Amino acid sequence: MRERFASGFDPFVIPFVIGMIFVLGYCLIAMVRVVCQLPKADRKRFLLSLITPKYIWMNVRDIFLNCLIHVKLWKRNKVLGYMHSSIAFGWFMLIVLGHLEVMLFVPERIRFFYYPIFFNYFVAETEQTLQGALLMFLMDFFLLLVLSGIVLAIIKRFVSRIVGMRRTTRLSVLDQVGLYSLWAIFPLRLLAESFTAHISGGSFLTIPANWVFRQFLGNDLNALPTWWAYSIALCIFMCVLPFTRYMHIPAEMLLIPMRNAGIKIRHPRKGFALLEVYSCPACGVCIDACPMSVRKANLRDCTVYLNRMLRRGNERRIAEISDKCLLCGKCSAVCQVGVQGPELRIAQRERRKFALSPSYADLDVRPMAEAVAGSGGVLYFAGCMTQLTPSILRATGSLLDKAGVSWKMMDPDGGLCCGRPLMMAGRTEQARELIAKNVEIIRASGCDTLLLSCPICYRVFKEEYPLEGIRVVHHSVFFQELIAAGKLPVQREDGLRLVWHDPCELGRGCGIYEQPRAALAAAGEVVEAGKNHAESICCGGSLGSLSLSFEQRRPMTQNALDNLTVADPDQIVTGCPLCLATFVRAADRPVRDIAEVLNEHC
Amino acid sequence: MDFGFKLSPSSAVNLDTVDRRRYDRLVQLQPDALTCIGCGSCSATCTSASWTGMSVRKVLLGLQRGRDEEVDKMLSGCMLCGKCTMVCPRGINTRQLILTLCRLDKNGEVVR
To answer: Which one of B77, B79, B105 has the shortest CB-CB distance to A422?
Structure first.
């Protein structure tokens, strides 16, 4: 390879250089800003993680697998996975190989950072090119890979169903500019490299194209304009990138190390929350997943639009979207970059100002503490929602007696709320007061196990309560263990088909999927819902939503029921009193709590 | 000295002097409030009732009758557990109603 131009420069590289400097500068400033916005302890933790070998390995692996190969997308849909990894990995390889070529053939030019991108324009083929045949082949191969991805992307724009998506995001104007310039980059690169392939050399893609073009054009006049167009397309893409959804490319590379370091959202708009908002690729997977989007309602209230509104600072819509959400967590479960929709919304709710704030400091819990004092063993906290459905209460008590467990009820005459509903409403400070009161009672009892029959309580007891030394357990898990240990003689009823509804707080919230199914299998045949485990559909009754009305929730409940009854079970079984109460109103077959079902067969 | 009975302070309400701005604003923001039939299901199920005497029915009534102190005391005991919403035969979103009310100042303006 020899250079064609002594200066190593042509004016057409200027747009690319401008775009590159702009995007690098913008991302650098944004990155420093996000890191500076973290609370001090978090920042220290994050920076330390960057020099810890264990985290370095995790970060490199996760960035490679998620940003380049898009493993999660492959698991979701093969076509979608191929489309993304071909573009991302192909482009990455084009850049890497471009640098390799420059280092091999014209090492002194590596300091011009535009050189690897426009390498084929600046060099001419010589006899030694044979050494580069492999590189040229690889360059053409990866270009073909990217082009195949682009073709899929164009098809997906018009028929999103081929990639398994019913609905995709409505793009903003700038997003469209970004999208079309991204589409244009690679065909233009192919054209530009083809026009100069007889000088610079090429491989299976560019050489034949060059031959075809020369047959009817017969001159080189088209080469320079095409290189200009290629450079301009790159410039446009990079200049709009920070203001479009493509910001997720650089943002995700910072999000992954921060998440690995265990950083959480501490401020509704700054630091980690800001990073999550910018990491949203606006792919729209959350639109189909959202239980609110049933019957084409609330389509604009999914996490992808929350992120867009947060970027735009549209306060009215931010409040509306934040208040409406059921906080079921399904958008997080399906999100490819792991944007935490519910946590983002709770953070927005916490920001709200109130004229009147509740206070529970004056509540006297001593009588409750005295009533359970020194009981030891298992302490059963029914919680508000179980109090509202006494059949669960009775069944749980009966099962505990049958298993010979020494237990005491914490709130026989009604107790305090666990604090989770307050947290969901963004009143974390007040929730802490309730938590302190409840801890006082639990500590007085001297129990070793705290049993809960409500997943809403279970989650907050597990995550927020300082209960070291006390096992917090949901009743479905507790009964499964009793059955496995042979302490609960549950009789299996042949022909009884049961479907388990994964409550949001128990499944996605606490990761408990298998134990309830195992317990139910002792009583009957467990069949599966259409969507289950992490993708189970919220019953629609969630306390997470502040503004959804009864009528708006109804179709969501119906949709969840339709999903549960695809295998035509005899009974719908759940482990959440709120799901139960919600389903009972609309179901065409019995809805029971797991404790009721087990108690009946015991 | 306990006579087994006592004299209560007058509970007469002069509707002409009652400041209804908070209630009117609430109705404007949450028209659901108008559909309350005062059945008391919310009071019967309330977690906070046994601690602070909270009752959504009484809150709505108290607002219309100018019992602001009573209303504020009840509201500050609410734990937002959502049972009242579950049992309301009129399908009133009581949690939203309570949260909206907590955002209104004495003049019925939403605090920002």
So the answer is: B79
Q: Dmax over Cα atoms in chain A, in whole Å? A: 98
Beta-carbon separation of A421 and B76 below 8 A: no
The residue assigned the tokens 């389903």 is A583
**H-helix segments, A196-222:** 197-200, 206-216
**Overall residue count recorded for chain B in this entry:** 112
pTM (two decimals): 0.91
- Which value does ipTM take for this structure? 0.90
Could you report the per-residue pLDDT of A551-602, keeping only the tens digit for each?
A: 999 999 999 999 999 999 999 999 999 999 999 999 999 999 999 999 999 8
* Kind plus residue range of the DSSP H or E element containing A450: strand A449-452
Interchain CB contact of A549 with B (< 8 Å)? yes
What are φ and ψ of residue A334, in 5° steps? Answer: -95, -10
Cα(A500)–Cα(A532) distance, integer angstroms: 9
Can you tell me the distance from the alpha carbon of A345 to that of A325, in angstroms, rounded to the nearest whole number? Answer: 8
Q: At what angle do helices A475-484 and A514-521 cross, to 10 degrees?
A: 50
**Total residue count of chain A as it appears in this document:** 602
DSSP-H helix ranges across A196-282: 197-200, 206-216, 223-240, 248-260, 272-279
CB contact under 8 A, A356 and B76: yes
CA distance A195 to A206: 8
- Whole-number Å distance between alpha carbons of A90 and B18: 73
